[in-house]
């Protein structure tokens, strides 16, 4: 592991002061003045989240980072070194993070990767016999399926190596950078305070929805609705405009009527209707169509496993598959469904 920068423990705390800092110190086993943190997955969400985490932790705390993409780790280390926000260590493997950090956050792309990274962290089952004897506190902010998340949690708790909380997030890349994310958590009630304190270093709201797995259940239900609302909004805007309505007048009417939803009001798919929407900048940025499709399919799979009927889901998933394959839509914000439908731009 490589130490990137060290700063005197006497330097002032940035955000965690007073009671919050004192409470958090209660679960540090290294020393009264230091805590150790880990962050794995420095992607579009994870990188700015880890940056906010590092900026809000006391400088003498250490943050261990890990990503298969070495460039992301190097860029993070260079940025933190420049801004002098505190100690960062580059870990070569997830296991090194788990061996050295008490509280570990992951933001990874899919269920298979989450599973393999956690297996790597907890195998062999000797974490609490190393330098840090305290059980680890794992928070997974990835959007994955509930069954995989429960399996990971079970493997951690049954081997006595720690606690696992699912904390999928909403707010996108913009919210991750601004530190305004909302986390939906599934956690045993005695871990809610600790998870909340950690997550508020990267976001603004933490909603406890129930036992482990409940955060993902909420997140998948919400993103299922979002995926369908997005398609329906694109279809409705397209039909109204083709019938001769002015796009802004149509959106304005919908947004004070019963069709109103986030895709119509904030992320309207028609360019020019909402100046700040991805549609108004060539569908760049925003919530990628591949991610929307991934979440929709996770929700469909979980619903099938529970024996639920989802007549709209399959049709929407087929549509998103086709949108993802279309060269003029691939990689764009998911409101690009409007373009795929042949909407007037
Ligand atoms: P991303 O693909 O940009 O980043 C994932 C990171 O994980 C990458 O840096 C990648 O190199 C790293 N990684 C992959 N395999 C790894 C491994 N085996 N070990 C260590 N690192 C590994 O994804 P993202 O957009 O940051 O999303 C992360 C999670 O958050 C996903 O589950 C996504 O669904 C969810 N999410 C994303 C958004 C969004 O707007 N991007 C919003 C809400 C939730």
From TrEMBL:
<dbReference type="GO" id="GO:0008442">
    <property type="term" value="F:3-hydroxyisobutyrate dehydrogenase activity"/>
</dbReference>
<dbReference type="InterPro" id="IPR036291">
    <property type="entry name" value="NAD(P)-bd_dom_sf"/>
</dbReference>
<dbReference type="InterPro" id="IPR015815">
    <property type="entry name" value="HIBADH-related"/>
</dbReference>
<dbReference type="InterPro" id="IPR029154">
    <property type="entry name" value="HIBADH-like_NADP-bd"/>
</dbReference>
<feature type="active site">
    <location>
        <position position="219"/>
    </location>
</feature>
<dbReference type="Pfam" id="PF14833">
    <property type="entry name" value="NAD_binding_11"/>
</dbReference>
<dbReference type="GO" id="GO:0006574">
    <property type="term" value="P:L-valine catabolic process"/>
</dbReference>
<comment type="similarity">
    <text>Belongs to the HIBADH-related family. 3-hydroxyisobutyrate dehydrogenase subfamily.</text>
</comment>
<keyword id="KW-0560">Oxidoreductase</keyword>
<keyword id="KW-0101">Branched-chain amino acid catabolism</keyword>
<feature type="domain" description="3-hydroxyisobutyrate dehydrogenase-like NAD-binding">
    <location>
        <begin position="213"/>
        <end position="341"/>
    </location>
</feature>
<dbReference type="Pfam" id="PF03446">
    <property type="entry name" value="NAD_binding_2"/>
</dbReference>
<dbReference type="GO" id="GO:0051287">
    <property type="term" value="F:NAD binding"/>
</dbReference>
<dbReference type="GO" id="GO:0050661">
    <property type="term" value="F:NADP binding"/>
</dbReference>
<keyword id="KW-0520">NAD</keyword>
<protein>
    <recommendedName>
        <fullName>3-hydroxyisobutyrate dehydrogenase</fullName>
        <ecNumber>1.1.1.31</ecNumber>
    </recommendedName>
</protein>
<dbReference type="GO" id="GO:0005739">
    <property type="term" value="C:mitochondrion"/>
</dbReference>
<dbReference type="InterPro" id="IPR002204">
    <property type="entry name" value="3-OH-isobutyrate_DH-rel_CS"/>
</dbReference>
<feature type="domain" description="6-phosphogluconate dehydrogenase NADP-binding">
    <location>
        <begin position="38"/>
        <end position="210"/>
    </location>
</feature>
<dbReference type="InterPro" id="IPR006115">
    <property type="entry name" value="6PGDH_NADP-bd"/>
</dbReference>
<dbReference type="InterPro" id="IPR008927">
    <property type="entry name" value="6-PGluconate_DH-like_C_sf"/>
</dbReference>
<dbReference type="InterPro" id="IPR013328">
    <property type="entry name" value="6PGD_dom2"/>
</dbReference>
<comment type="pathway">
    <text>Amino-acid degradation; L-valine degradation.</text>
</comment>
